[in-house]
Specification:
Elements lengths: L2 E6 L7 H16 L3 E6 L5 H12 L5 H8 L1 H16 L4 E3 L7 E3 L8 E4 L2 H8 L3 E5 L2 E3 L5 E3 L5 H11 L4 E6 L20 E3 H9 L7 H10 L3 E5 L13 E4 L1 H5 L10 E5 L2 E10 L4 H11 L7 E3 L7 E9 L3 H10 L1 H4 L4 E4 L2 E7 L9 H11 L6 E5 L2 E7 L3 H11 L10
Parallel strand pairs: 1-2, 1-9, 2-6, 3-6, 9-11, 10-12
Antiparallel strand pairs: 4-5, 7-8, 11-12, 13-18, 14-16, 14-17, 15-16, 18-20, 19-20
The structure holds aspartic acid (ASP) and magnesium ion.
Aspartic acid binds next to helix 6.
């Protein structure tokens, strides 16, 4: 017997027919003798619809009331799944965020989970009843409804799994796992059997949108074993097709699988490049640039400071989220006096390509191989950042697909015919 949290995303919950399919999967786990709690998303598109109602009602909506509105999508699906399970003869009960409760901070629209009271969940398990929990929502100390930020039901599921000390948190979605890269770009992309938390964190934050990044961070902190798998399609025996397990590095080392140097390649077109020309080359210059951006809550990602010109000035290039570009330009304009630059040049037709793998900790030359592979195809590198397990380059967005394909081949990730 295992204790499993099953989480179903918006496409899996979109309509009664799909909810029946979800209920059948839940029933199967129950019949295998497992203890099951389920976390659900709103039907696909529903949260967007609710967000738009808020905007229409008033562009300056009160975040407390926004949470009341947008949390409703998950309330609907959790009730519908409980009804469907009951109709299939499975004991089930929904538990809304405030009923458990799931206690969160009071940062409305982007609340953080503080604690989850597991009394009612434990009681449900003792009674052989499936607890159905709406993802994305919680409650403040004062008892007001909160939501966790878009995509937050993954985080709810991992948090419930951690609180219940579940053996596994199965995240059912519309893809059947985590791939070496986007299969729409590289048909020879392979599904990964295992990914480490750290790799998944990097892949999630650089644009492989399978899981909310926060949920991966939480899984890593709480050591929750997470599996990503598809809620569509079955194995020949009627069981679930295996997905990708996100686990601790030690767990993978013990497996027979030969580790690749590079685990995955991600691309991200959500950044914009900004260059400030002729910034004085003196102490405090970069602090004058990035201080005001940080104060405005604008996340700077890549940074390049060029060598100084003879004139005692230098160009500074960095990236910000595309959606924040206008705000960033405004902040820079206001700080112009204290920074002292000549021009601001910006470019939104850029794309960030990242190669990720824990294997690079113990191998030299990963970055060099990347630059060479790109250079051979005439792809110019505009900026670079690295971490212990990641190398990212900024390139012109027209080369995104080519770069991903070339790197996938260069690092030996292409599936061979028999493996594909
Ligand atoms: N329904 C919420 C959203 O669309 C939460 C989620 O599905 O993860 O953002
Ligand atoms: Mg999601």
């Amino acid at each position: 017997m295992a204790r499993i949290v099953m989480k179903f995303g918006g496409t899996s919950m979109a309509g009664i027919e799909r909810i029946r399919n979800v209920a059948a999967r839940v029933k199967r786990e129950v019949e295998r003798g497992n203890e099951v709690a389920v976390v659900v998303s709103a039907m696909a598109g529903e949260t967007d619809r609710l967000v738009n109602f808020c905007r229409e009602a008033s562009p300056l909506y009160d975040p407390k009331e926004y949470d009341v509105v947008v949390a409703a999508g998950e309330q609907v699906t959790s009730g519908l799944l409980a009804i469907t399970l009951q109709a299939m003869g499975v004991k089930a009960r929904s538990w809304l965020g405030w009923q458990l409760p799931i206690a969160t901070s009071d940062a409305h629209a982007s609340a953080r989970i503080a604690t989850i009271d597991t009394d009612k969940l434990a009681q449900a398990m003792r009674d052989g009843e499936v607890a159905v929990i709406p993802g994305f929502q919680g409650m403040t100390e004062e008892g007001r409804v909160t939501t966790l930020g878009r995509g937050g039901s993954d985080t709810s599921a991992v948090a419930v799994a951690a609180a219940m000390k579940a053996d596994r948190c199965d995240i059912y979605t519309d893809v059947d796992g985590v791939y070496t890269t986007d299969p729409r770009i590289v048909p020879k992309a392979r599904k990964l059997q295992y990914v480490t938390y750290e790799e998944m964190l990097e892949l999630a934050s650089v644009g492989a949108k399978v899981l909310q990044t926060r949920s991966v961070g939480l899984a890593m902190k709480e050591r929750v074993r997470v599996q990503v798998l598809s809620s569509f399609g079955d194995a020949p025996d009627g069981g679930d097709l295996p997905g990708t397990m996100i686990v601790d590095e030690n767990e993978i080392e013990g497996s027979t699988m030969e580790r690749q140097l590079i685990t995955g390649i991600a691309h991200d077109k959500n950044e914009a490049k900004v260059t400030l020309t002729a910034v004085p080359d003196k102490p405090g210059a970069v602090a004058n640039i990035f201080g005001p951006l940080a104060d405005a809550n604008i996340n700077v990602d890549m940074i390049v400071q060029n060598v100084a010109h003879d004139t005692g000035s230098t160009d500074v290039t960095f990236t910000v989220p595309r959606a924040e570009l206008a705000r960033a330009l405004d902040v820079l304009d206001k700080a112009r006096g204290s920074i002292g630059f000549d021009k601001v040049v910006h470019d939104t037709s850029v794309s960030k390509i990242s190669v990720v793998g824990v294997g690079m900790r113990s191998h030299a030359g990963v970055a060099a191989q990347m630059f060479k592979a790109l250079a051979d195809r005439g792809i110019n590198v505009l900026a670079i950042t690295t971490s212990e397990i990641k190398v990212s380059v900024l390139i012109h967005e027209d080369y995104t697909e080519l770069a991903v394909r070339v790197l996938h081949t260069a690092y030996g990730l292409d599936a061979t015919d028999e493996a594909a």
